[in-house]
Amino acid sequence: MTAGLAIAAVIGLGFLGLVVGLWVLLGWLGAWRINRPPSYQPDANFAFTPWELDLEFSTIEFKTADDVRLHGWFLPRPSSRRVVIVMHGYRGHKAQLLGISSYLWRAGFNVLLFDFRGRGTSDRASISMGLWEQEDLKAALEVANKQVPRATIGLLGYSVGGVVALLGGSDPRVAAIAVDSVFASQRTMLEHVARRESRQYLRGWLDGRVFLLAVEWWHRRWGKPPFSAIAPEAAMPKLADKPVLVIHGSQDALVPRQHAERLVAISPDKHEAWFVKGAHHCGAYFVDRPAYSVRVAAFFNRHLESSSNPQEAVGLHRVETASH
Q: Residue 278: which pLDDT band, with cuts at 50, 70 and 90?
C-alpha cells in the first residue's frame, strides 16, 4: 500500500468513526429528549386547584395494580351517574385540565381528573407514551365506580392521555371517548418529528429518520417499550362500535392531522373528527373555549346514559341546544 492510500484509508476510517459517533450521540440525545422526566415539585403544588374555581371536590389517592400511588380530584354530581375521566398529556398534570373539567362539572357530569404515574403529585415511576399508563386508567375506572355506583363513564384525553383512552377504551365500563391531539402510532409520530427537526437543525441535508434506530436502541436500553408497542390505530378496531370524537388542531406541528384521519377512518360511522382551524397541539380549547366546551359536553351528553334526575337531563339538553 502506498503512502497516499494509507493516508486515504486513515482519513476514511476517521470519517466513518466520526459518522458512527455522531449517529450514536444523536440517538442518545433523541432518546433523552423523549424520556427526560417531567418537572415535579414545586410546579405541581404551585398550580390552581378546584378550590380557586369554586368547585365542589374531594382529593383522592388510589393505587394501581402495580402499586403506584396516584393523586387526583373528584368533582361530584350526586344526582347523576355519568362520569367523565379527564387525562392530561405526556409531561402535564391534572391542574392543566381544570378549564374543561369545571365546565363539564357545571354541565352536570361527575368528573375525575388525576396525575399519571411519574407526573404531578403522583408517585415517581417510570413513564411511557401511553402503554404503562393503562394501569393508571384501570385504577381510575375502579375509583369512578366506587364514587358513583353503576356509573356510565366517558374518557377525555389529551395527547398521550388520549392514547391511553384509546388503548384502554375497550373496557366495557367505558361508553364514549373523546381525544384531542392524539397520534395514531408512536413510531409514525416520531418519524415525523425526526424529519421536521432534521430540516430545522440539519438544513435538510440528511433525513432525521436515519437516527431513529439509534434513538430506539437507547430508548430500549433504558427499559422503555419499543415504539411499535404504542399504536392506538391498532386498538381502534376494538372500538368500532363505541362513539369516539377525535379533535385535532389544523396547525399541530407535533402530530399531523393525518393521524386523526387514520383513526376516524377505521370506523367512520361511529367515529367523528373535529378539526379546529388555527389550533396547535392541545390548543383547540384555547381557540374558542366556550365552543369547545359546549361541543365536548354535547358529545358526552349524547352518548352517556342519561342522568337519574330528569330535571338535570333537561337542563343539559338546553345547554347543548343553545350552542347551535
A: very high
Nearest C-alpha neighbor of 293 from the set 252, 224, 260, 247: 247
Question: CA 260, CA 180: separation in Å to the nearest integer?
Answer: 9
What type of residue sits at position 60? Answer: I
Residue 252 CA to residue 59 CA, distance in Å, equals: 34
Cβ neighbours, 10 Å, residue 159: 25
The secondary structure of residue 76, as a DSSP letter, is: -
301, β-bridge pairs: none
Q: Quick one: pLDDT at residue 312?
A: 41
CB 271 within 8 A of CB 48: no
The CATH number of 41-185+230-322 is which of 3.30.1330.130, 3.90.550.10, 3.40.50.1820, 3.40.190.10? 3.40.50.1820
Confidence of residue 86 (pLDDT cuts 50, 70, 90): very high
> Is 197's pLDDT higher than 90?
no
d(CA 217, CA 31): 8
Whether this model's pTM surpasses 0.70: yes
- pLDDT > 70? residue 15: no
Identify the helix (H) or strand (E) that includes residue 58: strand 58-63
Per-residue buried b or exposed e for 20-59, using 16+ beta carbons within 10 Å of the residue's own CB: eeeeeebbbebbeebbeebeeeeebeeeeebeeeebebee
pLDDT surpassing 70 at residue 301 = yes
User: Averaged over 300-320, what is the pLDDT?
Assistant: 53
Confidence category of residue 215, pLDDT binned at 50, 70, 90: confident
Q: What is the 3-state secondary structure (H, E, C) of 185-252?
A: CHHHHHHHHHHHHHHHHCCCCCCHHHHHHHHHHHHHHCCCCCHHHCCHHHHHHHHCCCCEEEEEECCC
The DSSP 8-state label assigned to residue 277 in this structure reads T
- Domain limits, the chain: 1-36+187-229, 41-185+230-322
Residue 241: Cβ-neighbour burial (10 angstroms; 0-12, 13-18, 19+): exposed
